[in-house]
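Q: Structure for this?
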Amino acid sequence: MSEETTNAANVAEQDKGYWAANVRMILISLVIWAVVSFGFGIILRPALSGIRVGGTDLGFWFAQQGSILVFLALIFFYAWRMNKLDKQYGVDEE
Amino acid sequence: MDQFTLNLLFVGASFALYIGIAVWARAGSTSEFYAAGRGVHPVTNGMATAADWMSAASFISMAGLIAFTGYDNSSFLMGWTGGYVLLALLLAPYLRKFGKFTVSEFIGDRFYSKTARLVAVICLLVASITYVIGQMQGVGIAFGRFLEIDTTWGLLIGSCVVFAYAVFGGMKGVTYTQVAQYCVLITAYTIPAVFISLQLTGNPIPALGLFGSVESGEPLLAKLDAIVTDLGFAEYTAAHGSTINMVLFTLSLMIGTAGLPHVIMRFFTVPRVSDARWSAGWTLVFIALLYLTAPAVGAMARLNISELMWPNGTSGEAVSVEAIDNDPEYAWMETWQKTGLLDWEDKNGDGKIQYYNDANEDLQAKAAENGWEGNELTNFNRDILVLANPEIASLPGWVSGLVAAGGLAAALSTAAGLLLAISSAVSHDLLKGQLTPNMSEKSELIAARLKMEEAIVVEV
């Protein structure tokens, strides 16, 4: 085996690792995205009605404000993690 | 100064600012025209994208939609922002990575097909033109109301302004104008909300005031629930529709938002992929400033209106026709009656205007007892809520002028973004990509500008 083939194999391996990490990151983000909006804000609202927030319940807060705040944290977390991942696998554009 | 002069002053000053910026940031090359030379800072781009993304619907209509329905219309808040999350996670960074100017170009290259690119261009044109017509109609109506001119004239003035800066400035001009428009629209949205939140809850941050307490120590939302149910309307914070409907409605709003071509296009303007990701975050920060305030604006306006109509609830006396005619607190009702978007009628001739839900059985019984003959606030268009809000809360006249400028900024910034998407689709994808691939950069730039002029003419 020449050195070149091993390198190519390494690169392919690295690409796979990068992509797997990328997909995992997106999946985690989408689960959080769905849980706060569809979950806490709509479907799970009756289950959370015991927790009172300013004259109403937690589900109402998630539907009108909470989910937006979580979305915000989510996008920044994703940007930070993905940019770190890009550096780690050497695919950033610096 | 009267209200008309104030409106004219605020709207005129904001327009002068936009045109000034457009002249300063003229585009010289195609890269500047389509993608602002790819040199826009993520925070700047975030602000511009937020203005691009928030249309007249977010600024003018959304709070009204929430005010008159309550919890059930939370779908708009979660749907529009949640869709933006999809766009930021699944689309924007990858498109930026691909290094093209337009969405259709990406589709054509990705699927190795000119036909695919053509189909994408057509979809984009249909969606964008429909959307831009809606925005320009909003501009026409807002102009008509605030400058007391015909809607058609309002439409023409608005088109000329957009034309001036979108055609000459390209993406570069539009980006910097949108930054200015964002500042105008967020100030215009926040200032009245802060005043009203202070009046009602003593909290200067409307988003916190919504979950705060009124003077008596009662939570604002609990008081609102009590007042609207007293008038026979559905409880504000409770769910009334089916869960599955709300889930599907929210989901469809999310998917629709994720595909907006003029928003995706904005991510081509930043220098690197990592910037596209940060930029997406900043955009949502700027969007959230308005979206966290909107539910507070809705709930507080609903409370104010209900209390104005029934100062002591239905057990007390309703507002009298005489008060509406003479009391300055009710002057907004006459102003808006002229537009045909608000109306009342003293059906039982008792000199009072009873506003209640006449479809509610309990209230029907109460009405029979007291001699009411149906709801007398016969028309209240939800879209006037945000625009009339400063007057409803008896705020000074300059606040209304500012809100007028803000509503126009929201509509114009979206319209300019859409026009840019339309013109690049035609000149870059259709002409250069399909018909004359050898077109020079300069003639492409001219074609892009010509196309934009055409789009404006069509839409007028």
